[in-house]
Design brief:
Structural class: alpha/beta
Helix content: 25-40%
Distance between the termini: 80 Å
Strand content: 15-25%
Largest sheet: 8 strands, mixed
């Protein structure tokens, strides 16, 4: 009997040890490494859609798997210096270049407009390149649909701006897909007056120079007038007396533009 009790004691002891080991293993597996250390505020669901970017505070060339219509697979990306340290969703600004940057040399896009002054700004910027023809809004919208999942973007804070041909593209894209954007900034371009009422609730800040010899200032004047006639109270217009076609350098140098834009949410 004593031998039987002794054997039973050993069996119970071994079983208890296995139970403790099993519990410890389960506890270890429940620890999410993403929630440890300095990143304790990041949830698993956040990390699933978050990819750190390198480098930061710099323009880099990126590539999609294929061209999207006449929008190149190559594009210019900027992420701010605090991108990897801030797990909140970021505002996104899409910048559309002018006719001089069209083609297959993505480095041309890096040297104009918003790309020239974006460093230090607290938003993600993506600048696509038009391969030929004119900005196509359907292709641009497909391009944007591929871009958004690649970065930690706030879908309620997507902004659009462009200059010259990109100004036309900004008006057209916003008029065609107004639900996409929280605010738009078309510079020395023109839009479709028949669709102006699509923008009656859209925050718009348009820029043009009165002496523009390339794109008549009446293009912006008429768009602003038509949108106001639809009942808009959230449209702004800045017209400079001189400066020729280049209305973008002064516009993108104005810090008030970014304060205004980033305050807008859908």
């Amino acid at each position: 009997m004593r031998a039987l009790l002794k054997n039973l004691h050993h069996v119970l002891t071994i079983a208890a040890l296995f139970a403790v080991a099993s519990c410890s293993k389960q506890e270890d597996q429940s620890i999410d490494p993403i929630k440890t250390g300095s990143e304790s505020s990041v949830t698993a669901s956040t990390a699933e859609f978050y990819w750190p970017q390198t480098p930061v505070n710099s323009l880099i060339n990126k590539t999609l798997t294929a061209n999207v219509g006449n929008v190149s697979k190559n594009y210019v990306l900027y992420v701010p210096d605090t991108y990897n340290a801030n797990y909140n969703k970021w505002p996104l600004v899409i910048f559309l270049h002018g006719i001089g940057e069209m083609g297959t040399d993505i480095n041309k896009v890096r040297g104009v407009g918003l790309c020239q002054v974006v460093k230090g700004k607290q938003f993600v910027m993506v600048a696509p390149q038009c391969l030929s023809g004119w900005w196509n809004t359907a292709a641009l919208d497909q391009f944007l649909s591929q871009i958004i999942p690649k970065f930690h973007i706030d879908p309620k804070r997507i902004y659009l701006t462009g200059m010259s041909m990109g100004g036309y593209g900004t008006w057209d894209w916003a008029e065609t897909y107004p639900a996409r954007f929280a605010a738009v900034v078309p510079i020395c371009g023109g839009g479709n007056l028949s669709k102006a009422c699509n923008l009656k609730t859209m925050p718009v800040w348009a820029f043009h120079n009165a002496d523009d010899p390339t794109v008549s200032v009446n293009n912006s004047r008429d768009m602003v007038k038509a949108i106001k006639a639809c009942g808009s109270t959230v449209i702004k217009y800045t017209e400079n007396a001189t400066g020729g076609h280049n209305a973008w350098t002064k516009a993108y140098a104005d810090p008030n533009l970014y304060t205004w834009m980033l305050a807008k949410h859908k």
